[in-house]
C-alpha cells in the first residue's frame, strides 16, 4: 500500500460529510465512468450493508451519481446533484440490499444494461473496484491502470508486456484472473507514469484481445 | 523520517524547524519543488477559510436534521454576551462549529486528517493567526507542521474511527492543532512535539460511537472541544511543561488502546451513545 504523505493528511478538499460514504462514493462512480469511457444513459446502483443503511444521511447516492457524471470529490454541485442540469439526461435507479459476505460499503453499478462494476469504499476515502463484468479486479485509482480482457491461452501476458516494454512503459504491478468459464481472462496492469492512449489500439491488435481500457489515476 | 525521534534529530542536527524538514521531505518524495508543496498547503488553508466563511452564515440543517444550527446559536449569544475567556475563545468555538457544520450539510471542507475532525485544525490555526496577525507564510508553516505530526502518527496507527476509535480522528486532529499553534507562537521543535504529546495523551481511549452511524453526534460538538483542548496543550508546552511520555510512545499507546477497543465502539454504532435510549430513537426517526 502507498505510504501516507503530508498531502494526504491536509487534504482532500471534499464535499462532506464522510470520506468513506461521500468522497469514496464519488470516487467509485468516477472510476466506473472511466472504465466505461463514457457517461452512460442509464445506470442502476445497488447499495449494500452500511452503504444501504446510512447512505441517505451521508449523501452516498448523490456522491455515486455525481461521480458517474464526472464530478470530482470537491465539486459543490454534488449536494444538489439530483436537481442539477447535468443529471437531466441520465436515467438512474437505486436499490438497497444486505449481503454480509460483501464489504460493509459496497456498491454494484450497471451501466446501460451492458457493463457491471462492483466497488468498495475501504476507508478514509480509499476505494477499490473489485469486479468488472465477470472478472475480479482491484482498481484503486491510485495508479494509472491498463485493463484487458482476452482469450485465456498461453503467451498473452508476454505479448502485452513486450509491447509495453517496447514503448518504454514500466510495469509496477500485474494481476491476472480467469472468469468461471475458463475461456476469458483479465489482466490489470499498474504502470508508472502516463501512457499514450494510442497504445490501447496497439494492444487491441493482438489477436484474441477482446477489450482494453486505460484508466488514469484519480486526481483527488 | 518515520518516527518523531528521527524528526527531532534531523531538526536538531541540521538546525531546521519541523515544517522545513517536512516540506523538504515531501518535495523529494513527490519529486516536486518545495514551493509546490507550500502552494498545496496554501490551497488547503484557503479552503479551510472558505469553509469557515460559509459555515458562519448558514443555519441549514444536516440531512438527518440532527445538527446544523449550533454555530448560529453561539454567535447569537456572543453578540449579547462576551465569552468568559474572551474574544479569541469565541472565535475558536465558532470556527470549529462553522467548519464541522459545513461538513454535515454537504458543504466543502478539508479533511484534516478526516472529515469528521475537519474543524479542529482550522479553528485553532486560523483563530490564533488572526489574533496574533500571523502572515500567510507563518500560517502555511503551521499547517505543514500539523500535517507532519499527523503523517508520522499515521505510519503507526490508521487515522480512522473504524480502526482505532475517535482518538485517531479528533484526538490526532487535536495533536496536530496543538503543534500548529505552538509553531505559530514560535515554539521550539521540542515544545511542538511536546504539545502534540500532551494533547494526544489526554484523549487516549476516546471511542467512536456516532448516533445513527452519521458523522454528527458526537462529532460536530467534539470539534470545538478538541480545538480548545489543543490550545491548552500548546500553552502548557510553551511554558516548557513536558510530557513525561514522549510522543512516539504516546502513539504506541494509542495504537494499543485502539486495538484493545471493542469493535462495537469503533464506528459500528453498536454501543455507546449510538445505542442509548435517545440515540436509538433518533436513529429510528432518521431512517424510518
Ligand atoms: S466519533 Fe467517530 S465518526 Fe465521529 S468524528 Fe470521531 S471518529 Fe469520526
Q: Architecture of chain B, CATH level 2?
A: Orthogonal Bundle
Strand content of chain A: 25-35%
Task: Indicate the percent of residues in helices of chain B.
Answer: 55-70%
Number of DSSP E strands of chain B: 1
Bound molecules: iron/sulfur cluster
Biggest β-sheet description of chain B: none
The number of distinct helices of chain B, counting runs of at least 4 residues, comes to: 13
* Helix vs. strand class of chain B: mainly alpha
| Total domains of chain A | 2
Let me know the CATH homologous superfamily of the largest domain in chain A: D-3-phosphoglycerate dehydrogenase, domain 3
Measured between the Cα atoms of the first and last residue of chain A, the distance is 17 Å
Structural class of chain A: alpha+beta
Distance between the termini of chain B: 50 Å
Give the largest interface: A-B, 34 and 53 residues
Global mean pLDDT of chain A = 91
User: What is the strand content of chain B?
Assistant: under 5%
What does this structure look like?
The complex is a heterodimer of chains A (220) and B (288). Chain A has two domains: 23-133, 60s Ribosomal Protein L30, Chain: A; 144-215, ACT domain (Alpha-Beta Plaits). In chain A, strand 5 and strand 6 (126-132) form a beta hairpin. Chain A is built from six helices and eleven strands. In chain A, 27% of the residues lie in helices and 35% in strands. The mean pLDDT of chain A is 91. In chain A, the strands form two sheets. Chain A has a six-stranded mixed β-sheet with strand order 3-2-4-5-6-7. A four-stranded antiparallel β-sheet of chain A has the order 9-10-8-11, with helices on both faces. The radius of gyration of chain A is 18 Å and the shape is globular. With 220 residues, chain A is of the alpha+beta class. Chain B is globular and about 60 Å long. Chain B has helices at residues 4-14, 18-30, 34-56, 70-80, 87-104, 120-131, 136-156, 161-164, 170-184, 189-201, 219-238, 247-260, 277-287, and one strand spanning 108-110. Chain B has 13 helices and one strand, in the order αααααβαααααααα. By secondary structure, chain B is an all-alpha fold. The A-B interface holds A 3-19, 22-23, 50, 53-54, 56-59, 62, 74, 76, 78-79, 123-125 and B 22-23, 25-26, 29-30, 37, 40-41, 43-44, 47, 62-64, 102-116, 118, 143-144, 146-148, 150-151, 154-155, 158-160, 162-163, 176, 212-216, 286-287. Iron/sulfur cluster is lined by residues 116-117, 161, 166, 169-170, 208, 210, 215, 218-219, 267 of chain B.
Amino acid at each position: 500500500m502507498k505510504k501516507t504523505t503530508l498531502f494526504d493528511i491536509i487534504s482532500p478538499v471534499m464535499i462532506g460529510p464522510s470520506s468513506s460514504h461521500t468522497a469514496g462514493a464519488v470516487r467509485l462512480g468516477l472510476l466506473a465512468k472511466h472504465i466505461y469511457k463514457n457517461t452512460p444513459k442509464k445506470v442502476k446502483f445497488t447499495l449494500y450493508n452500511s452503504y444501504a443503511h446510512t447512505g441517505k444521511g451521508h449523501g452516498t447516492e448523490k456522491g455515486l451519481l455525481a461521480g458517474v457524471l464526472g464530478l470530482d470529490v470537491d465539486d459543490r454541485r454534488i449536494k444538489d446533484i439530483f436537481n442539477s442540469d447535468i443529471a437531466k439526461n441520465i436515467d438512474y435507479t437505486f436499490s438497497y440490499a444486505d449481503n454480509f459476505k460483501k464489504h460493509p460499503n459496497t456498491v454494484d453499478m450497471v451501466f446501460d444494461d451492458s457493463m457491471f462494476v462492483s466497488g468498495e469504499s475501504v476507508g478514509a476515502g480509499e476505494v477499490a473496484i473489485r469486479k468488472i463484468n465477470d472478472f475480479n479486479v482491484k482498481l484503486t485509482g491510485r495508479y494509472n491502470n491498463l485493463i484487458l480482457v482476452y482469450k485465456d491461452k498461453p503467451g498473452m501476458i508476454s505479448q502485452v508486456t513486450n509491447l509495453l516494454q517496447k514503448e518504454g512503459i514500466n510495469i509496477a504491478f500485474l494481476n491476472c484472473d480467469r472468469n468461471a468459464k475458463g475461456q476469458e481472462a483479465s489482466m490489470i496492469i499498474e504502470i508508472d507514469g502516463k501512457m499514450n492512449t494510442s497504445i490501447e489500439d496497439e494492444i487491441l491488435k493482438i489477436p484474441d484481445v477482446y477489450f482494453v481500457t486505460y484508466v488514469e489515476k484519480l486526481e483527488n | 523520517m518515520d518516527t518523531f525521534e528521527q524528526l527531532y534529530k534531523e531538526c536538531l542536527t541540521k538546525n531546521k524547524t519541523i515544517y522545513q524538514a517536512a516540506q523538504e521531505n515531501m518535495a523529494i518524495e513527490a519529486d516536486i519543488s518545495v514551493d509546490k508543496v507550500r502552494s498545496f498547503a496554501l490551497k488547503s488553508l484557503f479552503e479551510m477559510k472558505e469553509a469557515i466563511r460559509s459555515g458562519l452564515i448558514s443555519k441549514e440543517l444536516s440531512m438527518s436534521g440532527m445538527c446544523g444550527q449550533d454555530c448560529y446559536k453561539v454567535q447569537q449569544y456572543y453578540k449579547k454576551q462576551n465569552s468568559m475567556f474572551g474574544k479569541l475563545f469565541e472565535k475558536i468555538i465558532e470556527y470549529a462549529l462553522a467548519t464541522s457544520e459545513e461538513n454535515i450539510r454537504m458543504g466543502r471542507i478539508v479533511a484534516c486528517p478526516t472529515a469528521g475532525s475537519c474543524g479542529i485544525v482550522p479553528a485553532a490555526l486560523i483563530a490564533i493567526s488572526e489574533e496574533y496577525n500571523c502572515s500567510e507564510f507563518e500560517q502555511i508553516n503551521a499547517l505543514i507542521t500539523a500535517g507532519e505530526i499527523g503523517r508520522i502518527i499515521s505510519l503507526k496507527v490508521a487515522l480512522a474511527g473504524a480502526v482505532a476509535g475517535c482518538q485517531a480522528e479528533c484526538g490526532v486532529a487535536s495533536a496536530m492543532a496543538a503543534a500548529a499553534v505552538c509553531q505559530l507562537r514560535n515554539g521550539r521543535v521540542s515544545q511542538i512535539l511536546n504539545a502534540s504529546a500532551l494533547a494526544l495523551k489526554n484523549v487516549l481511549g476516546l471511542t467512536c460511537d456516532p448516533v445513527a452511524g452519521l458523522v454528527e453526534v458526537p462529532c460536530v460538538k467534539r470539534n470545538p472541544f478538541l480545538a480548545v483542548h489543543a490550545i491548552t496543550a500548546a500553552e502548557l508546552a510553551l511554558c516548557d511543561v513536558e510530557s513525561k511520555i514522549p510522543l512516539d510512545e504516546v502513539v504506541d499507546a494509542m495504537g494499543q488502546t485502539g486495538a484493545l477497543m471493542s469493535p462495537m465502539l469503533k464506528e459500528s454504532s453498536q454501543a455507546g451513545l449510538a445505542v442509548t435510549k435517545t440515540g436509538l430513537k433518533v436513529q429510528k426517526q432518521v431512517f424510518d
